[in-house]
Amino acid sequence: MLPAYLPNPVAAALGGGKPIDGGRCWRDGRRIFGDGKTVRGLIAGIAGGVAIGLLQILVHSHAEIVWLPEHTLVSITLLAVGALLGDLAKSFLKRRRGVERGEKWPVADQFDLVIGAFILLLIFDPGWLFSTITIPIAIAILILTPVLHRGTNIIGYILGIKDVPW
Ligand code: CTP
Ligand code: MG
Q1: What is the predicted pLDDT for the residue at 32?
Q2: pLDDT of 28 above 80
Q3: Top mutation candidate among 5, 8, 30, 37 for ligand 1, by most atoms within 8 Å of CB
Q4: pLDDT-based confidence at residue 52 (cuts at 50, 70, 90)
Q5: Ligand 1 mean position to 138 CA, how many Å?
């Protein structure tokens, strides 16, 4: 799951500048995505996720780590792109519900990346999804994701990368 987990912290650390929506508003008069979703964050985040995935593929090809599922260029790309598309879709829905940028939206804030990544895998690489994400792994993801999300956001807040600890 590293290619899906890394894009968010990388986007938080390296993002900024031009927002993806270009400052434009939706029909409801609220921002389409908001200032928290930037072009640089999107590109850097996807690059970060793909980079860690490539490292995983490299390590796997040099060591016999049979208990680790195998990645492909397609699987790591879908995980990284899906994670940030999920994050973007969540921000779109937050704005439609009148939730301000940076304001909490429990559950959605934690699982957006997993939902986005799995939807892309389901469409473009269902074989990998179903052979790799078995029931025990799915349960581990369900438990680990909110824990890692909260943990990294607290660290990001302490380091001054994030404005809020969620
Ligand atoms: N970020 C970015 N580009 C992205 C995603 C994130 O630049 N595509 C950066 C922004 O600086 C953002 C930070 O990462 O503030 C934290 O991301 P997140 O918590 O997802 O954004 P929020 O600011 O909380 O905005 P929202 O309410 O829309 O989730
Ligand atoms: Mg947030």
Answers
A1: 98
A2: yes
A3: 37
A4: very high
A5: 26
pTM: 0.96
Length of the chain: 166
CB atoms within 10 A of CB 77: 19
Determine which residue's CA is closest to atom 21 belonging to ligand 1.
Answer: 36
Collect all residues with Cβ–Cβ distance below 8 Å to 89 and sequence separation of at least 6.
Answer: 112, 116
